[in-house]
Write a structure and sequence with these properties.
heterodimer; A: 236 residues; mainly alpha; 2 domains; globular; B: 110 residues
């Protein structure tokens, strides 16, 4: 065991996160492009990327705004996309729950899928880490991601106005989301949940302004949880 | 497409900024070291796969760009993206193959 060395863990986090730049940079640029096509100006694009800092929810909000959904539905549905972060928050709590409040606040602001995934595995594997070292590692993972997230959003927003319709950018969002969902279909329960979501969303498409999606999402979460329980009982 | 109201856009941005922070801070900030009820975690686990497929499905089947009619290029691109993502577990590879399929089919069929 070496002595406590937060700086070393910060750098480890940064190194572990570097490959994710390959996903973060195009995804952020795409957000800038799609949001600009939807009619947002550069300041608004940056407002989303800096203040909200949650790609999938940002795309959802822009999509629903272009469909002229009521503002309440835009906000609720986009926040529903972010509800997975409550799970991240819950599962990081045993490792970081005793950190000072400002550190927990910073961890919350910077909570992105990649930082969570890397940190969760690291904390589980290396139980002997102190809370300070864990915090250093976590911030280290976001250190390369957040600046490129902001910068690529800006580049996308500035370039976005010049992209002609032949590029079929309307389909950038579905492709990006499908690419994110597919690897998440790890178990029977995840597949059942996703299929329920699709079927209910299509059946409820008549409901005004995306409110059908909320119904579909709640139904799909219940199905996922129930299938998980069923599989556990069968395995037992 | 109607012009977006910029006051509304900023309202959405601030509401989402505050809401997203509260979701992320929730357990970490308020629960601290206490454990969470099992049934809550069990439902939270499925939020991404419960929301995103439902959001995408109508966009794939009835795209605005083709007047709401199913379009072979977009359907093909969606299937390829899903298949590559599922088998490779690689988000970037899935996006790139989906985009290549879309442009390939648009070129061939267009």
């Amino acid at each position: 065991m070496t002595a406590s060395n937060p700086k070393r863990h910060f750098l480890r986090g940064t190194r572990d996160a570097l490959p994710f730049l390959l996903v973060i940079i195009p995804f952020a640029a795409l957000f800038g492009v799609v949001a600009t096509e939807a009619g947002l100006n550069v300041a608004e694009v940056m407002g989303f990327s800096v203040l909200v800092i949650a790609g999938a929810a940002q795309f959802t909000a822009v999509q629903l705004m272009t469909e002229n959904a009521p503002t309440v539905i835009v906000i609720l549905t986009s926040l529903a996309v972010n509800m997975r972060m409550a799970m991240y928050s819950a599962s990081l709590t045993p490792y970081l729950g005793s950190a000072p409040i400002w550190q927990r606040g910073l961890v919350a602001y910077l909570m992105v899928d990649q930082a969570y995934a890397l940190s969760q595995i690291k904390f589980e594997m290396e139980r002997e880490l102190t809370v300070t070292e864990r915090f250093a590692y976590y911030v280290g993972t976001v250190a390369p991601l957040a600046p490129f997230w902001y910068a690529a959003s800006y580049v996308g927003a500035v370039a976005g106005a010049q992209v002609p319709p032949e590029f079929a950018l309307d389909f950038a969002l579905p492709i990006t989301f499908l690419a994110m969902i597919a690897p998440a279909l790890r178990t029977m329960a995840h597949v059942a949940s996703a299929m329920t979501s699709v079927v209910l969303a299509l059946l409820m498409a008549w409901m005004p302004y995306g409110s059908g999606l909320l119904v579909a999402a709640i139904g799909a979460m219940i199905v996922g949880a129930q299938v998980e329980l069923y599989m556990e009982r069968r395995a037992a | 497409m109607e012009e977006l109201n910029h006051t509304t856009v900023w309202f959405v941005i601030f509401a989402m900024a505050i809401g997203s922070f509260l979701i992320r801070f929730s357990f970490l900030g308020l629960i601290g070291d206490r454990p969470m009820p099992e049934w809550v975690l069990r439902h939270l686990r499925y939020t991404p796969v419960a929301v995103l497929p439902g959001l995408v499905a109508p966009l794939v089947l009835w795209p605005d760009a083709t007047g709401g009619n199913p379009d072979p290029a977009r359907l093909g691109a969606a299937l390829v993206t899903l298949a590559v993502g599922y088998f490779s577990k690689n988000v970037l590879a899935a996006i790139l193959s989906g985009a290549a399929t879309l442009y390939g089919l648009l070129y061939l069929l267009g």
